[in-house]
Design a protein that fits this description.
Bound molecules: calcium ion
Domain EAL: 31-287
Oligomer: single chain
Strand order of the largest sheet: 1-2-3-4-5-6-7-8
CATH class of the largest domain: Alpha Beta
Distance between the termini: 90 Å
Organism: Siminovitchia thermophila
Largest sheet: 8 strands, mixed, barrel
Radius of gyration: 23 Å
Protein name: EAL domain-containing protein (Putative c-di-GMP-specific phosphodiesterase class I)
Length: 292
């Protein structure tokens, strides 16, 4: 190799290295900016809480609401999903979970005064299963906040929502029984998506099973979904568990799921998530169709 070609090869390496450094700096600076934004969101409560009604498919009564927290779209987080993905990469998961839980409870109390049967209304709160398992997390903190706000733990349903695997079921059952003894109820969220398998149902014995939209949407046209949902409904009946079908947007899905005697439903066809606490409704034309 002559001098000029060895210089060229060295220069190539050097340029690649500079490019790599540039890429890393850019990535780190993006992370840093996003992290600062997350801190700002928590500090200044820059988060909207939406309440989506959960409706009894037979009577049309709203039994409760799921609290959904979303940051306003920003340059750093163009979508809610990108925001939650980022939170999951940081060491702020527990803190953020705690922040969301508190803000959901406070806002629900502020906004639900007009409800007729407020004392019977349930509030569904998403919670990361690992938060419950963390030894430094004390259930007493949530209880204390509920007491301050005048909420009975019996009105709170904890949705175990993260699509990550629960592996230590023995420990988890103990933690959940502690919560239940305080009055909380448990829902297994996104059933049919990710890791929430039938095994989870057997071990966690939830009071509610929330069927993921991947099982409920277009169910009238999909035999495999119908078989799976039928199986879960039968299991639920035998174990005295309530089923909530999520993602109901089409009247055909609503018709199929109420025909199969699914207890409750959630989705745009019954009520969109709103910044106010507004009861949902079975569409009028659907009610009429049922009578005819
Ligand atoms: Ca949920
Ligand atoms: Ca869900």
């Amino acid at each position: 190799m002559n001098h000029s070609s060895s210089f060229l090869s060295w220069a190539d390496h050097f340029i690649s290295y500079l490019k790599y450094l540039h890429y890393r700096l850019k990535k780190e600076s993006l992370y840093h900016k996003r992290f600062m934004m997350l801190q700002k969101i928590m500090r200044n409560q820059l988060l909207d809480t939406f309440f989506q009604p959960i409706v009894c498919l037979q009577s049309g009564t709203t039994i409760g609401y799921e609290a959904l927290n979303r940051p306003a779209p920003s340059k750093w987080f163009p979508s809610t999903e990108s925001f939650y993905d980022f939170v999951g990469q940081t060491d702020q998961v527990f803190l953020f979970d705690y922040f969301c839980r508190n803000i959901s409870l406070q806002r629900f109390m502020e906004l639900s005064e007009h409800l007729e049967a407020r004392e019977d209304t349930l509030l569904f709160i998403n919670i990361h299963p690992h938060v419950l398992l963390d030894s430094s997390y004390h259930s007493g903190e949530t209880l204390g906040l509920l007491q301050d706000l005048g909420i009975d733990p019996g009105n709170i349903v904890l949705e175990l929502t993260e699509r990550s695997a629960v592996t230590d079921f023995v420990q988890f059952e103990q933690v959940l029984s502690n919560y239940r003894s305080q009055g909380f109820r448990i829902a297994v969220d996104d059933m049919g998506a990710g890791y929430n398998s039938l095994k989870t149902l057997v071990h966690l014995k939830p009071e509610f099973i929330k069927l993921d939209k991947s099982l409920t949407q277009n169910i009238d046209q999909n035999n495999a979904q119908q078989q799976m949902v039928t199986l879960i409904i039968e299991f639920a009946k035998k174990t005295m568990t309530h089923v909530i079908a999520e993602g109901i947007e089409r009247v055909e899905d609503l018709a199929y799921l109420s025909y199969k005697e699914v207890d409750f439903g959630q989705g745009y066809a019954l009520g969109k998530p709103k910044k106010e606490v507004m009861p949902g409704k079975i569409p009028d034309f659907f009610q009429k169709r049922k009578i005819l």
